[in-house]
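Session log. Operator J.P. requested a structure for one protein chain; no other inputs attached. Running the standard single-chain path with C-alpha cell output.
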Amino acid sequence: PSSEPSTTEHREERKKQIEEEREALITLLTALEAQRFINYATSHCDWKLNGLSTTQHPFAIGISVGWQWNINHGYDVCNEDGFVINIFLLYEGLRGSIPTEVGMLSQLTELRLDSNEITGSIPTEVGMLSQLTYLYLWRNGITGSIPTEV
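Structure written below.
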C-alpha cells in the first residue's frame, strides 16, 4: 500500500482548504462592513471583488470600464483551483479593521484596500501570505507600524 494520499483524499483536502478560504474572506468582508459583496448563493470566486465601484470612485463617471481594466489588469478573484488571489476594493467606503483571518488567504497575491476608511493596525498574519506581491493600504486610517512579518 502506498503512503501517498489518494486522489479522493487530495480532492477532499483541497475542498476543505477552499471552504476555509471562503470563510476567511467572509470574515474579512464582514469586519470591513462590506457584506454587500457576499453572495452566499454563488462561489466566492464570482463575487465582485476585483474592480471599482462606479458610484464611489471620483474618476469613475464615463470611464469606469477602462479604469477597472487598468486597476485589476483583468485578473480574476480566484485562480483555477478556487483559491483567492486578488482582492481589489478601493474607494468602497470600507470601515473597520483588517481581521487576522486575512492570513488564511494562502494564495493571495494582491490586496488593494486603499482609499477607504479602514482603521486599526496591519495584522501580523499578513506576513503569512507568502504569495503576496502587492499590498495597497494607503488613504485609510490605519495606525501603527508595518509588522516585521510583512
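Operator note: Residues 7-31 form the longest helix (25 residues).
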